[in-house]
UniProtKB/TrEMBL annotation:
Homodimer. SUPFAM superfamilies: PRTase-like. Its EC number is 2.4.2.7. The keyword Ligase does not apply. Keywords: Cytoplasm, Glycosyltransferase, Purine salvage, Transferase. It comes from Oreocharis arfaki (tit berrypecker). InterPro entries: Adenine_PRTase, PRTase-like, PRTase_dom. It is found in: Cytoplasm. Coiled coil: none annotated. The keyword Glycosyltransferase applies. One of its GO terms (molecular function) is adenine phosphoribosyltransferase activity. This is adenine phosphoribosyltransferase. Belongs to the purine/pyrimidine phosphoribosyltransferase family. The gene is Apt1.
Length: 204
């Protein structure tokens, strides 16, 4: 298997087969690549984590562990990178997946919510109005919670339609004002060990 994996997946700069002997929570965080293009981009790129078979599986398992036994009806992923983890989480839980989109992509009736993203840009998020019924319990998933503006907009959309936020999951929830606001009010899950949280908060 190792030989087949190497032939199919490995390239000179990306070994997608190596798995550490001790897979502690968050081991896969080291797969992420730092920003080399400047301040207009996110400070880390998780793409290699998603390409790594065991890394992705372990990341999703760690995100879902706190919600074992909880009532979850639907997993919602936030446009765009939240679609990856959200769909993987939905498949693992055997639940449906709902896409919460940036405005302008849905051709059906929607409800919209303006927000400011991590870069300070003003945007609008929307979701189809028929997807969330009163009392529906939704696990919200995104790649990252930095300032919390994007996730708070998703929370607002769910609750305006009568849904219940069953939880919030992201690879990292930073200890920003917005991140703390979310963690104080909702059950949350992320993958960063406490000893590494200060480094992630400082984007190191």
């Amino acid at each position: 298997f190792r030989a087949q994996c190497s032939q199919r997946l490995q390239c000179p700069r990306m070994d997608l087969c190596h798995v550490p002997a001790a897979r502690e929570k968050g081991w896969y965080l080291a797969l992420m690549a730092p920003n080399v293009k400047g301040p207009n981009y996110a400070w880390l790129d998780p793409s290699r984590l998603y390409c790594h078979p065991q890394g992705l599986q372990d990341c999703v398992a760690d995100l879902l562990q706190p919600f074992q036994g909880d009532a979850i009806d639907v997993v919602a992923g936030i446009d765009a990178m939240g679609f990856i983890l959200g769909a993987a989480a939905a498949a693992t839980l055997r639940k449906g997946f709902l896409a919460i989109r940036k405005a302008g992509h849905l051709c059906v009736q929607t409800v919209a919510q303006p927000y400011t993203d991590y870069s300070g840009r003003e945007k609008v998020m929307e979701v189809r109005t028929d997807a969330i019924s009163p009392g529906l319990r939704i696990l919200l998933v995104d790649q990252w919670v930095e300032t919390g503006g994007t996730m708070r907009a998703a929370i607002e959309l769910v609750e305006r339609l009568g849904g219940v936020v069953a939880g919030v999951a992201a690879i990292c929830i930073e200890s920003s004002e917005g991140g703390k606001w979310i963690q104080e009010r909702y059950k949350c899950s992320h993958c960063v060990p406490p000893r590494l949280q200060p480094r992630f908060d400082q984007h190191q």
